[in-house]
Task: inverse folding
């Protein structure tokens, strides 16, 4: 018994890697996912805020992430944008991460293809047609996080005179029939938008709180990687953020709330399996450690 | 040395093959869904490089090193181009060129004067931040590195001036306020609220219990954690007991952070495996053999 427990404590870490890999691979190969998720309060707050907006209202979606955090943040951004498209909320999207444009434009293209024809969503609701320029605009990336957030408080055109494709933004209040970006005729600064949804794997949401919320009082909702969410909870507790989507779990919660299970929901099954596995390892490791230590103190472990 | 040349040749070979084959249509997956060779190769390369990276889990090896160096190199090149096109060119080069063009027009029209052509010519003044930026490069010289301090001083001073008022409000004032009242609530209530205990004892529920103890827990946690970081007094007696409780709160905090980190890392693994199984193997490889 002593030998078994001692061997367990000195197990080669590659066996643990292999078990974790199997825990992830098997559900994905079988195509199984969680059938439902139980949304946390912080996610419901974001959903309720967006759900209570009127058709035609405008939000800023600051999608500040790079390919490294796609597995967590893309499902989140996709779910939020689908919610906006279904509700008729117009979206001014941008990125403050240098590696963001490629990721964001791919996601927007994918969603615009999905919403290019009238149809029915998987939950039976009507899927409206959404168009670039009218329902969503992508401004691209600009260097300087704080400077750009402050500039947005004065006039979006100070930082982004053109959209990502190089099309000149129309003047604020100009005739929307004379431009290919009519959405931007209604946007000058934060007073024209209902909130900023920042989805990021970095500390950029803190900049949105400091410069956007504190300086211009624009409401901020945050989606972040699981690593970051513990750091952002104080901002949620003090009301400086309206809500928080934490990692893949937050994305799965949002998919549940909009009745559109997708990749986050599929990912949460292997996630749960691996979590259970790790908790099991920690418990077993600790039990084995204390038993072996006790035996060694008593008889030197000659069993 | 031999490995370096081998890695270089593998990289060069892959680049040549990708460049050559990217011009050809590979196969069609549907009526209008023509899969281009560059898409196929791009996804296949991504899959191969993912596997190269994961070989590190067994042990360090040249395949991992190759993928790692490729990532570092392409990232450096990508960021250089992005920063040039989003900052250096529009904010400096284009501005300076426009400034000189304005001077040229004014001279041609005979309206050149010092105030309008130089002092109020914003384009010309872009030279100043350009010089500051250039001075940072003197960091590389041991003799002239002092020049870079002016640039850093300007940069840090500006950033601090911008951040301190709002950052202090967001990260300190609001957090202190959040320790005293539930500021996120519609009508702020005190964090230490004895009426919650009354409600819990009259109608005992789990939610009521959590609501009742969360406020006192926050206050005790902050007090004891601050005690732990008070190093001017020896941690013994009552003071030591408080600081020990502070350590427990810190441990719980670190545990939560560790759990969140595990979740994030596993999410990345799930994302890569999802890509390998669904996007690459089921989406590209199986159709090649008539499956999928």
Result:
């Amino acid at each position: 018994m002593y030998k078994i427990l001692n061997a367990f404590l000195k197990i080669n870490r590659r066996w643990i890697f292999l078990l974790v890999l199997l825990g992830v691979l098997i559900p994905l190969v079988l195509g199984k996912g969680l059938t439902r998720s139980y949304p946390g309060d912080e996610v419901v707050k974001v959903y309720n805020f967006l759900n209570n907006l009127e058709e035609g209202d405008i939000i800023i979606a600051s999608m500040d992430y790079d390919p490294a955090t796609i597995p967590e943040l893309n499902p989140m951004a996709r779910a939020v944008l689908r919610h906006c498209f279904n509700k008729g909320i117009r979206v001014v999207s941008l990125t403050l991460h240098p590696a963001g444009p490629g990721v964001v434009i791919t996601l927007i293209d994918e969603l615009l293809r999905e919403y290019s024809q009238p149809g029915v969503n998987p939950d039976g609701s009507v899927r409206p047609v959404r168009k670039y320029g009218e329902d969503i605009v992508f401004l691209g990336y600009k260097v300087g996080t704080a400077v750009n957030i402050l500039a947005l408080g004065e006039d979006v055109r100070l930082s982004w005179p053109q959209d990502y494709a190089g099309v000149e933004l129309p003047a604020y209040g100009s005739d929307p029939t004379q431009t290919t970006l009519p959405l931007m005729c209604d946007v000058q600064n934060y007073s024209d938008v209902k909130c900023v949804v920042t989805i990021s794997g970095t500390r950029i949401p803190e900049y949105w709180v400091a410069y956007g919320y504190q300086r211009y009082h624009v409401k901020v909702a945050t989606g972040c990687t699981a690593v970051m969410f513990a750091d952002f909870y104080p901002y949620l507790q003090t009301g400086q953020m309206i809500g928080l989507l934490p990692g893949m779990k937050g994305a799965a919660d949002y998919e549940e709330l909009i009745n559109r299970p997708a990749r986050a929901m599929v990912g949460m099954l292997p996630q749960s399996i691996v979590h259970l596995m790790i908790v099991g390892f920690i418990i077993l490791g600790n039990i084995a450690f204390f038993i072996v230590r006790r035996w060694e103190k008593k008889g030197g472990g000659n069993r | 040395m031999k490995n370096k040349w081998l890695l270089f040749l593998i990289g060069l070979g892959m680049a040549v093959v990708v460049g050559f084959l990217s011009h050809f249509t590979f196969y069609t997956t549907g009526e209008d869904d023509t899969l281009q060779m560059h898409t196929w190769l791009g996804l296949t390369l991504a899959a191969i490089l993912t596997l190269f990276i994961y070989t590190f889990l067994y042990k360090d090896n040249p395949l991992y090193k190759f993928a790692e160096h490729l990532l570092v190199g392409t990232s450096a090149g990508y960021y250089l181009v992005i920063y040039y096109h989003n900052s250096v060119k529009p904010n400096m080069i284009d501005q300076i060129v426009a400034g000189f063009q304005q001077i040229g027009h004014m001279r041609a029209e005979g309206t050149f004067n010092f105030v309008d052509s130089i002092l109020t010519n914003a384009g010309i003044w872009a030279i100043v931040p350009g010089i500051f930026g250039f001075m940072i490069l003197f960091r590389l010289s041991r003799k002239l590195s002092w020049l870079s301090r002016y640039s850093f001083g300007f940069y840090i001073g500006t950033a601090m001036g911008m951040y301190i008022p709002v950052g202090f409000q967001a990260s300190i004032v609001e957090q202190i306020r959040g320790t005293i009242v539930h500021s996120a609530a519609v009508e702020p209530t005190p964090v230490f609220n004895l009426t919650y205990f009354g409600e819990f004892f009259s109608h005992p529920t789990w939610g009521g219990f959590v609501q009742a103890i969360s406020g006192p827990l926050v206050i005790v946690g902050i007090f004891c954690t601050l005690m732990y970081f008070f190093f001017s007094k020896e941690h013994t007696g009552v003071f030591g007991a408080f600081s020990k409780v502070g350590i427990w709160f810190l441990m719980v905090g670190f545990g939560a952070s560790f759990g969140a980190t595990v979740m994030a890392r596993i999410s990345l693994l799930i994302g890569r495996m999802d890509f390998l199984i669904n996007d690459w193997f089921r989406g590209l490889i199986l159709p090649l053999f008539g499956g999928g």
Remarks:
- Chain B touches chain A at residues 57-58, 78-79, 82-83, 86-87, 91, 159, 162-163, 166-167, 169-171, 174-175, 177-178, 182-185, 253, 256-257, 260-264, 266-274, 277-278 (CB under 8 Å).
- Chain B has a mean pLDDT of 85.
- Strands of chain B lie at 25-28, 34-36.
- Residues 187-292 of chain B form one domain.
